[in-house]
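Incident review: delayed structure delivery

Summary: a single-chain prediction request sat in the queue longer than the usual turnaround. Root cause was a stuck worker, restarted by the on-call engineer. No data loss occurred. The affected request and its eventual output are reproduced below so the record is complete for anyone auditing the incident later.

Affected input:
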Amino acid sequence: MFSQFAGLPYLAHLYRRGICICTGSGIGAVLSTCVQLDNWFLIWIGANMEETFGPVLFDMIKRKIPKERYIVFDTKKEGRRPDTVKMLKEVYQSFQAEGTLCSPVFV
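Output delivered after worker restart:
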């Protein structure tokens, strides 16, 4: 028998502070958590994200999540991939997170 959980928003309440990290379309699985809960930090990594997902999504992130609670890393604009482990470690320490949730696309 398989047990299932209701989704990331339910798991998010297990931690006082946490980080959602995703790539590309994984934003769909984690964005609502970061928009609705001010104790969650968003890291989104991908290429041509504004062109791919549109300005409405980017505007929502900028309006609903304070600048100090998200990183949007566009690999196309930066011309490189980030050191994800280093980035996650730095955010984990500075944000004083207790947990990290990865979107299914990321793992």
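Verification: The radius of gyration is 14 Å.
Action items: add queue-age alerting; document worker restart procedure.
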